[in-house]
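Quick question, first post here. What does this chain look like in 3D?
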Amino acid sequence: MNIRQYTKIKQKGIKEQERAPESEDINKEYLKKLKKHRTTVAVTAIILVAVLLTGMTAFYFYNISVEYQGFQVIKSIQRADAETAHYVPYGQGILKYSNDGAAYIGSDLSECWNQTYQMQEPIYAICESAVALADKNGTEVYILNGNGLMAQVNTLLPIKKLAVSAQGLTAASVEDSGTGWIKIYSPTMPDAVLAETKILMEESGYPVAMCLSNDGIKFGISHLSVDGGAAKSTLAFHNLGSVGENEIDNFVGSTSYAGTIFPVFEYINSDTAVAYGNDKIEVFTGKQIPELAYELQLEEEIVRIGYDSQHIGVMVKNTQDSGKYRLDIYDLKGKKIFSQGIDRDYTQLQISGDTILLYNDGECCIYNIQGVLKFQKSLSKTILSMAVLGNNHYMVVTEDEIEIMKLVR
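> Answer (accepted):
Ran it through. C-alpha cells below.
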C-alpha cells in the first residue's frame, strides 16, 4: 500500500476495530515512507536553496567586478533645439530647458511633455518627479511633474532661487529693496502663499542657498553675513508642519559658523540635509527638527560635489595619495565607503544608486559604489550631459544627438 492509498483510508474515518489485522503493519509502513519522503523533500529544498544562493552570489560578485571595454549606441535622435538649451538628469531621462521652453525626454527618447514659456535666465529645482522652473529676476514659476504642468505661480516679486518637494510644493526666494522672503506655494493652491519667512539681510545675512525636504515639511536656509570683517554663515531650519506652526516664521533652530561659507545646501531625502562648505561638510538629520548628525572636516580644496538620497560625494585636490584629485564617497552615517585617486579633469560628478559617473567634454569614467572601475573611455564626441538609466544603460547628450548607450564587454 502506498501513501496515497493509506491517506484515503484515513480520510474515510474507518474505525480502528474495523481494520484488517494487518493495519498496524500498514501504519508502520506508512510512517516509515512518510518520514523518508519528508527527509527527501527537506534535503532537496536545502540543496536547491544552496545552489540558488551560490549562483546569485557568484553572479553578484561577477557583475560588480566586471569591467566593460566599450559601448553600443542602441538608439539615437537628432537634436533640434537652440544652442542655449541645457540638459540635466530628471526622472527616467533628461530635462531639457532653454529660454523658450522645457521638455522631458524619457528613457526611450520620446518627449513625455513640452512646456513653452519665455525667460531670459531660466533656473530650476528638481526633486524626484517634480520640477520647478522660473526666470531669475522674473515672477513666474512653472511647477511640473512626470505628466506635465501642475500649476503656474506668480510671486509678484523678483525670484532669486528655487526649491521643490517631491509633491511639487515650491519654495521661492524673492527680494525687494534689501528685504527678502522665502515664500512657499502649493500646486493645488497656486494663487495663495502657503507660508512665508521674512529675511532682514542686515540682521540675518544674505540667503546664499536654500533647500526643501522631499516630503515638503522642512526647509533650510544658508545665510552669509560679515562679523568683525570675517565671513559668518548660519544654517537655519524651519518646519511647515505642526511642530513649527506656533513658532515665528516656523523657525525651529540654527547653527552658526565663523569663517565658513556654505554655497550649497540640499535636502537629499525627507530627513537628511547636507551643507557643503569651503572647509567642511555638515550633515543634519531629523524627521521634524534637524540635528547635526556628523561633520566632515576638509583639509583639501573641493573641486566637485555629488550626492543622491543615500550617498555624499566630494572630489578634492589630492595632497595625500597618488592622483591629481581624490574622490571620496560617504554613506549617511559618515562612513567612507569609497576613495579613489583621479588623474583626469572631470567636470561632472553624479551619483545614482550604485553608480558613480564622472565625465568631461569627451571622456567618461564609471565606478560602482564598491569602488570597482566599470568603464573608462573617450566617447569621441563632446558630451554635454549624461543620465544613468540602469542596467548598464545611459543617456548621453552630445552636440548633435541624444543617444542611449549600453556598455559592452
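The radius of gyration is 29 Å.
The chain has a mean pLDDT of 88.
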